Amino acid sequence: MIEVIREQNLKQTLEKLKAEIAKSNGTMHLAVHPFYKQKPSKEMLDCLAGEKTSNRKAPLVVFEQNWHVNTTVNKLNSLIPKREIYVVPTNTANPLPLKQVGGWEILNNLGIKKIFLAGQILAYATDRELEELTKWGNITAQQKQGILDLHQKEIAELKKKHPNFKKGHIESLAQNKVGCVGIAYMQLRKANFEVVLMPSFCHSIIGPFKRLKE
Predict the structure, then answer these.
(1) Between the CA of residue 60 and those of 48, 154, 175, 191, 208, what are the distances in Å?
(2) What torsion, rounded to 10 degrees, do the Cα atoms 26, 106, 198, 92 define?
(3) Rounded to an integer, what distance in angstroms lies between the CA atom of residue 126 and that of residue 134?
(4) Rg, the chain, Cα only
(5) Cβ atoms within 10 A of the Cβ of 8, count?
(6) Does the bond joining 2 to the residue before it have cis omega, within 30 degrees of 0?
(7) In DSSP terms, which residues pair with 65 in a beta bridge?
(8) Continuous segment of H or E residues that includes residue 10
(9) Number of H helices, E strands in the chain
């Protein structure tokens, strides 16, 4: 069953999603723009179907660009006909849910304890590349600062968890994450959600510049 969350059905659909999340002990799967640009890999399709995740009963929430929602619903119906799926319309080339359905606050008060995150596109950027992305308008200054703040937070978390790791090793693990999946990861962590990023179930690129040239 696929439910598209719109302003008209917002309250009742979120109540259903909340009940599904409760059944899965607070776990939710989130796919950000899973059909964007590239054809999804078999691994990503298995992830969307719940085959490669630890809690197959968890509901799947798909963030999809508003103009592409109908196409995505048709693809999900044909590829994953048996899963409980909730589609949230977002802005174009941006994981931010539409203002009409609540923006990022749409995930508040749903009893979420853990989010498994996948989708397209995930990339990693140096601080210098972040400056370039901001200058070119690919990310906002606010998003850039959020990414940098999260980078420092993750470094501190890794130092605490792995006190014997060398500085270079820690910094390689806590890279700046960009692309729609990276921005979503930053926003969710900023909102204090526990997020498990699944790079093997993302369409990832080395550095942001390939994405910019497409």
Answers:
(1) 7, 26, 27, 19, 27
(2) 160
(3) 12
(4) 17
(5) 9
(6) no
(7) 90
(8) helix 10-23
(9) 8, 7
**9-18, 118-127, 195-204: least confidently modelled range:** 195-204
- Residues listed for the chain: 214
Angle, CA 44 vertex, CA 55 and CA 98 arms, to 5°: 85
CA angle 109, 112, 113 (to 5 degrees): 135
- The single residue listed with the structure tokens 């498990």 is 196
pLDDT reported for residue 210: 45
What pTM was estimated for this model as a whole?
0.87
Please count the CA atoms within 13 angstroms of the CA of 196 that sit on its side-chain side: 14
**Cα dist. 142→25, 57, 88, 89, 162 in Å?**
33, 36, 23, 22, 30
Separation between Cα atoms, residue 188 and residue 210, nearest integer Å: 25
Neighbouring C-beta atoms of residue 94, cutoff 10 Å: 16
pLDDT of the residue at 204: 66
Place of tokens 């009940």: 19
